[in-house]
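Researcher: I'm preparing a figure for a lab meeting and need a structural model of a single chain. I don't have an experimental structure, so a prediction will have to do for now. The sequence is pasted below. Please return the structure as tokens so I can convert it later.
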Amino acid sequence: MFEAGETATRDPTYTFCPAWHRKPLLHLFTKHFCQHPVFPRRDGTTQSAEVIQWQAVHDMYSFCFQRGLREVWAYMWNSWYCPTMWKLWARSTTPYVTRLRTTMIAENFFKQLKHNQLHYLLHPRLDHLVYILIYDVTPSYMSKMDLHAQEFRLGRSKPLTPFQIRFKAQW
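Model: Understood. Here is the structure written out token by token.
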């Protein structure tokens, strides 16, 4: 758990990140997560992905430095703000803007999985769950992806979207 030469602190009052710093720290982190070159700032200008990253690192470092949170800054840099980790979580690293957050996508996937494939199973065994994912869920997703492919049904009209189907039924 500790590297060579490191020891646990003997100070019983030691706190990694005091409670009064947690909410502003989380707010700052969330701000950095949501920034994207497409979104303008309050003054109407936009920033490049590199400027967003540099500003985010500077903001977090300044926040931790002003409050004496050396260990928090070390954790934030090594786990979130270093260039290799930044690419994994920051929205500004991709030119595309996702409509949904990752947690929402995962929650919706498992909600659909429980409703459609696991509705009759209370606690499925892992091997059964993997079987369902491979042979039931994956083929249905592959067929949905084929519908959205540009080459699908060349020379024919595209299938109607759910909105168009409802609109046509009401018409």
